[in-house]
Specification:
Number of strands of chain B: 21
Strand content of chain B: 25-35%
CATH class of the largest domain in chain A: Alpha Beta
Shape of chain A: globular
Largest sheet of chain A: 9 strands, mixed
Order of helices and strands of chain A: EHEHEHEHHHEEEHEHHEHHHHEE
Number of domains of chain A: 2
Radius of gyration of chain A: 19 Å
Strand content of chain A: 15-25%
Helix content of chain A: 25-40%
CATH architecture of the largest domain in chain A: 3-Layer(aba) Sandwich
CATH superfamily of the largest domain in chain B: Thiolase/Chalcone synthase
Radius of gyration of chain B: 22 Å
CATH class of the largest domain in chain B: Alpha Beta
Oligomer: heterodimer
Chain lengths: 388, 472
């Protein structure tokens, strides 16, 4: 079943992303959900079902995380966990519920409260999976791709640094970003190493945050506050590959097949033939700088091996032909896992409505959001468009 | 007559100059350097590498027994020979045994192996001795001790070093010793222990041997005598009336390796065999609470995988005394307890220790870890077990600073390795300078302790650069 034009985003809300020492998951989720409800002009009682993206069980388990926080009882609420793509997968499930006609108005949200754990990097990553086979940090998983790309394509740490410089330039203008400071290539190269060849500025930060979207059938959207500028879901795809690419025979580490597959499905659903020409802008999963460059290729914005050239030609900058991460991306927002996918969709919605909180993309028609999880394991691609 | 058909040794990569120790404590230092096992090594992992060398040209499936000898068994209760046997991929229907606690462990194991092949209960037995004895800081022992392993494959027939006779004496003696509660070896009086524990027992064992077989000292072409220190060793030679001009006396390797405890007699024996020629008559003797002596004749070449000379050359000098403290866990840090499961360790033992993967009967792809469905074609339950190569090349890597666990060296190299003959694995690098790692670099696998979660040793494979052109 295609969801194209069957689901409208009628309200969005999100917290500032960053270090929320004085707030817990309850504060963050309440803030995001009530902002979305107010934006939609509906009450919690109008919402019939909910999906929430949460990765860590210390943030919350089960649907009761949402029901207990909102004191919103008796509804069908599901927690969705799919690595770092948990947030966008929650949205995807919510879309199907509306497109199928099962519900008129639903909630998709994501939240993560990580900093309370006192961890360097993502907490507990070393505990996931088999107790003997080698574990690796999240930066390490993606560093394996960077090392290989350096070898095959001749890319350098300077090339990666350009992604950080671009996204920090974009994010500096965003009031809800964790980091709002421009950096230079030298800053990035001088920073401490996290997992060679990725230094501190090649990695997104660990942050807290929440984001929420209210979805409705288009007929309902036409009676709501954003009846003139609601946003329509054009496509919505998820692809799951392996969490163990390091063991996969023949895996080339030059990109992520999950992203390629999700993009192919999403473009087919939206009727997009030439993404580079037809997509107005994209919020992509720049957990690490190398990931963003590989995303350009995997999403079909450029050919394989051309990611660095695409970047150096200025195309993904805010004033370029295809702005990528106009919000500043994960580089500036950090990555509260379950919240990130929903935060991207909030950003894409507001850009399409011409009310971006940060830098506004000029006259966008189709916006793409891309959420990647695991070791490039799980990719979700969502395309939103203006209602006209 | 039992024949030692091959031998193998292992000396860890790290070496600590004794001068570094002396300077750290402002005390006099002995000359030379000592071998230091890395933070991921113990007697078991060292035994595995020595055993692999001894089996370099042998079929592991033809080995009928494995005896592991050490004074530093990692467990109070739990046999370690089984871990070594699994990593060497020996058959399960064999006799495995640990010989522990005394310095005689190595030669007692050799004697038992000889008896077994003579009795006909085994065609061949692998004896592996390894020791990494913790020495109390600021003592002589800290400077003198060294870590190493050695192995010999004893067969019922074949050419090599024929064991023509043996002689043992039991001599009750207290010192040096270590009780269950002691972390470090205790000593009452070093002079007393050297004269009455070492010299007297060595002389008794060798004299008994020579008398029993009617051999005179001057009939010996080569003598391999365990020695806790150089002067003591020379005293034994003098008392036995061995003339070093007629009989080649094996250098006890104290200057370059150290006193390697229960591993010492077999380590020195392996070093001597590298120089011995067919027709030579050899003496091998060791001590402890008593002594053991063997009379051997070289009848042919004894294979050794990588040589003692290779390991003596392949070394890295530790940057500081503190690096040694970290390597041997001699100072206490906040413990990190990773997830660990004896259940999973047992269930996956074929993959983890024997190092098997699966070759798909449908598409031929070799996958690791073993999974029910093929990683390449998805076919269910079509894999047949294959023992994976312990050599390969780096496909890609990272040097991870963001590590979880009790690492003394950061960054931790993590390497995706393409194994020779198929299979792709993800391993930690060890015994290397992270800066030297490159894509396509040849690496070889070594068994190490990857962590000690839940209080037991998780032995698994790591990899290190292949040095000096591979197996000699």
């Amino acid at each position: 079943m295609s969801v194209k034009d069957k689901v409208a985003v009628i309200g969005v809300g999100y917290t500032r992303f960053g270090e929320h020492w004085e707030k817990d998951a309850e504060d963050l989720l309440i803030e995001a959900v009530y902002e979305a409800l107010e934006d939609a002009g509906v009450t919690l009682q109008d919402v019939q079902a909910g999906w929430v993206g949460i990765f860590y069980d210390f943030t919350g388990c089960g649907g009761s995380t949402v029901s207990d926080i909102l004191k919103w009882f008796g509804r069908p609420i599901t927690r969705v966990e799919n690595y770092c793509a948990s947030g966008m997968d929650a949205f995807r499930n919510a879309c199907f519920a509306v497109a199928s006609g099962a519900y008129d108005v639903v909630l998709a949200c994501g939240v993560e409260k990580i900093l309370d754990q006192g961890s360097r990097g993502l907490p507990g990553i070393g505990e996931i999976g088999h107790p003997v086979y080698g574990s690796v940090s999240a930066p390490g998983m993606f560093a394996l791709a960077a090392t290989r790309c350096f070898h095959v394509h001749g890319w350098t740490r300077e090339d990666l640094a350009l992604v950080a410089v671009k996204n920090h330039r974009h994010g500096a203008a965003h009031p809800k970003a964790h980091f709002r400071r421009e950096i230079t290539v030298e800053d990035a190269l001088r920073a401490p190493m996290i997992a060679y060849p990725l230094g501190r500025y090649d990695c997104c930060a660990v942050s807290d945050g929440a984001a929420a979207l209210i979805l409705a059938r288009p007929e309902v959207a036409r009676t709501c506050r954003h009846k003139d500028d609601y946003v329509l879901v054009k496509a919505n795809a998820l692809s799951v590959h392996t969490m163990l690419p390091m063991y996969q025979p023949g895996f080339d580490y030059l990109g992520w097949p999950a992203t390629r597959d999700a993009a192919r499905m999403a473009y087919a659903e939206a009727g997009i033939r030439n993404p580079r020409e037809e997509i107005s802008f994209a919020e992509v999963h720049d957990c690490f700088t190398i990931t963003e460059i590989l995303n350009y290729e995997d999403l079909g914005f450029c050919e394989k091996g051309e990611g660095v050239r695409f970047l150096r030609e200025g195309i993904p900058y805010i004033d370029g032909k295809l702005p990528v991460n106009p919000s500043g991306g994960l580089k500036c927002f950090g990555h509260p896992i379950g919240a990130t996918g929903c935060r991207m969709l909030v950003e894409v919605t507001k850009q399409l409505q011409g009310r971006a909180d940060g830098l506004q993309v000029r006259d966008p028609r189709l916006g793409l959001a891309h959420n990647l999880g695991g070791a490039g394991t799980t990719a979700s691609v969502t395309i939103l468009g203006r209602r006209d | 007559m039992p024949v030692i058909v091959s031998c193998g040794t292992y000396i860890p990569y790290g070496r600590l100059p004794r001068e570094t120790i002396g300077r750290s404590w402002s005390i006099p230092s002995a000359p030379g350097e000592r071998a230091v096992a890395g933070p991921d090594e113990d007697s078991v992992t060292m035994a595995v590498e020595a055993g692999l060398n001894a089996l370099a040209d042998a079929d592991p499936a033809a080995v009928d027994g494995l005896f592991f000898a050490t004074t530093t068994a990692p467990y109070r209760q739990k046999q370690c020979a089984t871990t070594v046997a699994a990593a060497l991929d020996l058959r399960p229907d064999i006799l495995t045994a640990d010989f522990t606690d005394g310095l005689r462990a190595g030669l007692c194991a050799l004697r038992s192996a000889c008896d077994a092949v003579v009795a006909g209960t085994a065609r061949s037995v692998l004896v592996v001795a390894a020791d990494c004895r913790p020495a109390e800081p600021e003592t002589q022992a800290e400077q003198v001790f060294g870590d190493a392993a050695a192995a010999v494959l004893v067969a019922r027939e074949g050419s090599g070093a024929e064991v023509q006779g043996s002689f043992s004496v039991a001599g009750e003696f207290v010192g040096p010793w270590r009780t269950e509660r002691d972390r470090f070896l205790k000593s009452f009086d070093a002079r007393f222990e050297l004269n009455y524990g070492y010299v007297r027992n060595m002389v008794a064992a060798v004299t008994g041997l020579l008398e029993r077989y009617g051999v005179k000292p001057e009939d010996l072409h080569r003598a391999v005598l365990a020695a806790p220190d150089l002067r003591g060793g020379m005293e034994v030679v003098r008392r036995l009336r061995i003339d070093p001009r007629r009989t080649a006396v094996q250098d006890p390797l104290l200057a370059g390796v150290g006193d390697t405890g229960a591993a010492q007699p077999l380590l020195l024996f392996a070093a001597a065999l590298e120089e011995a020629r067919p027709g030579e008559r050899m003496l091998l003797a060791g001590w402890g609470e008593g002594g053991d002596a063997f009379l051997l004749e070289v009848t042919g070449k004894v294979g050794c995988g990588r040589s003692v000379q290779h390991y003596l050359r392949t070394r890295k000098v530790l940057a500081s005394y503190n690096a040694y403290l970290k390597a041997r866990d001699l100072f206490r840090r906040e413990p990190y307890v990773p997830k660990s499961s004896p259940v999973i360790y047992w269930r996956d033992r074929r993959d983890l220790l024997n190092f098997y993967g699966l070759r798909c009967r449908n598409c031929g792809t070799v996958q690791y870890p073993s999974g029910r469905a093929c990683f390449a074609c998805g076919a269910k339950d079509r894999g047949e077990p294959v023992r994976l190569a312990r050599r390969g090349r780096v496909f890609t890597f990272t040097l991870d600073h963001l590590v979880y666990g009790d690492y003394s060296d950061i960054p931790v190299p993590r390497l995706v390795v393409e194994l020779e003959g198929g299979g792709r694995v993800f391993l930690e690098g060890t015994d290397c300078d992270p800066e030297e790692i490159r894509i396509d670099m040849p690496v070889e696998l070594v068994l190490r302790i990857v962590h000690r979660g839940a209080g037991f040793n998780n032995y698994y494979w790591k990899c290190r650069p292949v040095r000096e052109g591979g197996v000699s």
